Amino acid sequence: MAGEKQDKVWPLPKFYFQVKWDDQVCQFQEVSGLNVESTPIEYRHGDSPEFSVIKMPGLKKVGNVTMKKGVFKSDNSFFTWFQEIKLNTIKRKVITISLLDESNAPTMTWTLNNAFPTKITGTDLKSNGNEVAVESIEVAFETMSIANS
Fold first, then answer.
1. What is the spatial distance between Cα 40 and Cα 38, in angstroms, rounded to a whole number?
2. Is residue 77 classed as helix, strand or coil in its secondary structure?
């Protein structure tokens, strides 16, 4: 009804976000793969009266994150970073992904620690297409922290 006090508990839209790495804000069209899981350990001790295993939380593991953005003239930052891979060494980076509210304030933040590129995918080319050229980068990382403001 008009004039009623609005409830402030609404789900956040997912289309307004920013990605920071190397202290610069990068514009991406899509970010996917923000997941972390714990591998269960199955255990049964020898004198257990139960004829089944118990499950305990094991090591945590994270997946790779894929980020897609439009191709811009003279922007070769993905490939430049990927070219730094030399004999199992690369400059690892901290990547911060923030979901923003209507006032540009971060409401949820994912921090990917020790990230490095594992795959770069260039755009597909079609002579009869009219879409924007989009490239993607897949990054691996060691740990992820999640903060909710």
1. 6
2. helix
Please check whether the domain covering 17-37+51-148 is classified as CATH 3.40.1010.10: no
H-type helices in the chain, by residue range?
Answer: 77-82
Q: Are the C-beta atoms of 123 and 133 separated by less than 8 Å?
A: yes
Q: In the predicted model, what is the mean pLDDT of residues 67-92?
A: 88
Residue 79 CB contacts under 8 Å (≥ 6 apart), including other chains: 120
pLDDT tens digits, 95-145: 999 999 888 899 999 999 999 999 999 999 989 988 899 999 999 999 999
Q: pTM of the predicted model, to two decimals?
A: 0.82
Contact (Cβ atoms closer than 8 angstroms) between residue 66 and residue 33: yes
One-letter-per-residue 3-state SS of 27-41: CCCEEECCCEEEEEE
Distance CA 83, CA 105 (A): 34
